[in-house]
């Protein structure tokens, strides 16, 4: 399991991984088709290390949350700094 160290005050950011590499986390707001519907953020993580696989996630991150990569090759744990 690889830990992503995120700054909770930032949106798109370069993140440090527990294996010593870095990656890029980008978020896009997704609006529903119904007026007044709550919006969601879709996050895309792209690791800088070629042996790692990224993920796409929609919603809010929580401390200790575990997210699997696109095909399940890697598992990431969220940590706020």
- How large is the share of residues in beta strands? over 45%
Spatial ordering of strands, largest sheet: 5-4-3-2-1-7-6
Order of helices and strands: EEEEEEE
Structural class: mainly beta
- Distance between the ends: 18 Å
Main beta-sheet strand count, sense and barrel state? 7 strands, mixed
- Helix count? 0
Percent helix, as a range, is under 10%
Give a count of the beta strands, DSSP E runs of length 2 or more. 7
Low-confidence stretches: none
Rounded mean pLDDT is 92
User: What would the principal axes of the Cα set say about the shape?
Assistant: globular
- Rg calc: 13 Å
Main attributes of the structure:
single chain, 81 residues, mainly beta, 7-stranded mixed β-sheet, globular
Describe the 3D structure.
- With 81 residues, the protein is mainly beta.
- It has no helices and 7 strands.
- A 7-stranded mixed sheet has the order 5-4-3-2-1-7-6, with no helix packed on it.
- The two termini are 18 Å apart.
Brief digest:
0% of the residues lie in helices and 49% in strands.
SSE blueprint and pairings:
Blueprint: E1 2-6, E2 13-17, E3 22-30, E4 40-47, E5 55-58, E6 66-68, E7 75-80
Parallel strand pairs: 1-7
Antiparallel strand pairs: 1-2, 2-3, 3-4, 4-5, 6-7
